[in-house]
Amino acid sequence: MILDVNAYIGPFAFRALRHDTAAGLAALMAAKGIDRAIVSSALAITYRNTQTANEALAAEIKPHGGRLIPFAVINPAYAGWRDDLEACRTLGFRGLRIYPAWHGYALGDSICLELVDAATAMGMVISIPMRVEDVRNQSWLVDVPEVPLADVAKLVAARPAARFMLLNGAGYANGPLGRKDALPANYLIEISRMDSVLTDEIGRLVSNLGADRLAFGTGMPLHYPDAGLLKLEILRASDADKAKIAWGNAAAWLGLDG
């Protein structure tokens, strides 16, 4: 079983994407052997008020049953975010994706901490993409930096009761997020941007943190899923550890049956 914790339903504001509809993504997942995926709206990334995109995503994935698991994009810098969060819970969203660098706040800001606390009280998982695109490929219209891993480390330490999924990141193994017992065990690290050969950061994280702290993801359709699947296949780890990364860890957080 494979659960992708890092997928999107389009469109995306700055480039055309293949497979960016719910039907297209489901077909791509079937072709690649990916059973389920956590999805959020790629369009919401560039919306100040993200709720219309959240509602459109909820409607679009309905025909796909539980295969596509919705996460809401919530912008705490927007005045109506509390109403948006409650509406998303009612619509069945299982978690959030937050984009501090795109929406103009920092992870340590009081508005972000209030959102994390509210989502945690609702039992929602909070996912944080460190970046959407490589900064070298960004449109000339935007200049959006990556989320600093130091800010993420401070947030997970400040909110030990929250559960975080860290997406599209790299360099964890060199800092506190990659060291066992340095921080609360309240986060999963998604593997799509790391490698399992040259620097073997995925393998080092398995050694440092344990396989139960990693989760499979691809970034599709912003990225093609084959690279993520290959990284997992060639990872020097036991089949039991690969199963945890591919499915078990994220499924346990979401209460999914295997």
Description:
The protein has 258 residues and is α/β, with parallel strands linked by helices. The chain is 36% helix and 14% strand. It has an eight-stranded parallel β-sheet with strand order 1-2-3-4-5-6-7-8. The longest helix has 16 residues, at 239-254.
Q: Mean pLDDT, nearest integer?
A: 95
Structural class: alpha/beta
Oligomer, anyone? single chain
Instruction: Characterize the largest beta sheet: strand count, sense, and whether it forms a barrel.
Output: 8 strands, parallel
Strand proportion: 5-15%
Instruction: Describe the global form.
Output: globular
- Tell me the span between the first and last alpha carbons: 7 Å
Number of strands: 8
Write a concise synopsis of the structure shown:
The chain has 258 residues and is of the alpha/beta class.
